[in-house]
TrEMBL record:
<dbReference type="GO" id="GO:0005634">
    <property type="term" value="C:nucleus"/>
</dbReference>
<dbReference type="GO" id="GO:0031410">
    <property type="term" value="C:cytoplasmic vesicle"/>
</dbReference>
<dbReference type="GO" id="GO:0072659">
    <property type="term" value="P:protein localization to plasma membrane"/>
</dbReference>
<dbReference type="InterPro" id="IPR004032">
    <property type="entry name" value="PMP22_EMP_MP20"/>
</dbReference>
<dbReference type="GO" id="GO:2001046">
    <property type="term" value="P:positive regulation of integrin-mediated signaling pathway"/>
</dbReference>
<keyword id="KW-0472">Membrane</keyword>
<dbReference type="GO" id="GO:0034394">
    <property type="term" value="P:protein localization to cell surface"/>
</dbReference>
<dbReference type="GO" id="GO:0000139">
    <property type="term" value="C:Golgi membrane"/>
</dbReference>
<dbReference type="GO" id="GO:0019901">
    <property type="term" value="F:protein kinase binding"/>
</dbReference>
<dbReference type="GO" id="GO:1990266">
    <property type="term" value="P:neutrophil migration"/>
</dbReference>
<dbReference type="GO" id="GO:0001954">
    <property type="term" value="P:positive regulation of cell-matrix adhesion"/>
</dbReference>
<keyword id="KW-1133">Transmembrane helix</keyword>
<dbReference type="GO" id="GO:0032060">
    <property type="term" value="P:bleb assembly"/>
</dbReference>
<keyword id="KW-0963">Cytoplasm</keyword>
<keyword id="KW-0812">Transmembrane</keyword>
<feature type="transmembrane region" description="Helical">
    <location>
        <begin position="63"/>
        <end position="83"/>
    </location>
</feature>
<comment type="subunit">
    <text>Interacts with PTK2; regulates PTK2 activation and localization. Interacts with ITGB3; regulates the levels of the heterodimer ITGA5-ITGB3 integrin surface expression. Interacts with P2RX7 (via C-terminus). Interacts with ITGB1; the interaction may be direct or indirect and ITGB1 has a heterodimer form.</text>
</comment>
C-alpha cells in the first residue's frame, strides 16, 4: 500500500511540474531564430517583446494564460487536499474532492491548449509586426508538455476517484 501511495504522490507532483513548465517556459511556438509562448515573443534570443493589450486577439491570449495558471493552481490545491484527506477520511471512503479538483485542473489545461491550437494562426496573422518571423515555426515542447499534463491530470483525477482509503 505504501508503494501505491508513493506512486500516486510522485505522479501528482510530476503533473504539477509539467503544468509549471508548460505555463512558465517560453516554447509554445518555436523556430530557428525565434521562440514564442503565451507571455512573450523572442527573436534572436535577445529581442523579446511582451504580449500586452496592444496586440489584436489579446483576449484569446489572456484566456490561454488564465486557464493555464488556473490549472496549475488547481493541481497544487488538489495535492494539498489529498494530503489532508489522507489523515481525515475514514477507512473505505473515496478521495472524491481531490478527484473533482484534479479533473477541473485537467479541464483547464485542455481548454488552454485547445484555444492555443485553434487560434494560434489567427493570432500570428493579425499581429504580423510581432510575429513577422514566426511563420516557419512549429509547436514547441511547452505546448507538448501542456497536452502531456492534460493526460497526466486526467489519469490522476480518475485514480483519485477510484482510490479508497485503507489502513
Amino acid at each position: 500500500m505504501l508503494v501505491l501511495l508513493a506512486f500516486i504522490i510522485i505522479f501528482h507532483i510530476t503533473s504539477a511540474a509539467l503544468l509549471f513548465i508548460a505555463t512558465i517556459d517560453n516554447a509554445w511556438w518555436v523556430g530557428e531564430e525565434f521562440f514564442a509562448d503565451i507571455w512573450r515573443v523572442c527573436v534572436n534570443n535577445t529581442n523579446c517583446t511582451e504580449i500586452d493589450d496592444s496586440i489584436q486577439e489579446f483576449s484569446t491570449v489572456q484566456a490561454v494564460q488564465a486557464t493555464m495558471i488556473l490549472s496549475t493552481i488547481l493541481c497544487c490545491i488538489a495535492f494539498l487536499i489529498f494530503v489532508l484527506q489522507l489523515f481525515r477520511l475514514k477507512q473505505g471512503e473515496r478521495f472524491v474532492l481531490t478527484s473533482i479538483i484534479q479533473l477541473m485542473s485537467c479541464l483547464c489545461v485542455m481548454i488552454a491548449a485547445s484555444i492555443y491550437t485553434d487560434r494560434r494562426e489567427d493570432i500570428h496573422k493579425n499581429n504580423s509586426r510581432l510575429y513577422a518571423l514566426t511563420s516557419d515555426g512549429s509547436y514547441g515542447y511547452s505546448f507538448i508538455l501542456a497536452w502531456v499534463a492534460f493526460a497526466f491530470t486526467f489519469i490522476s483525477g480518475l485514480m483519485y476517484l477510484i482510490l479508497r482509503k485503507r489502513k
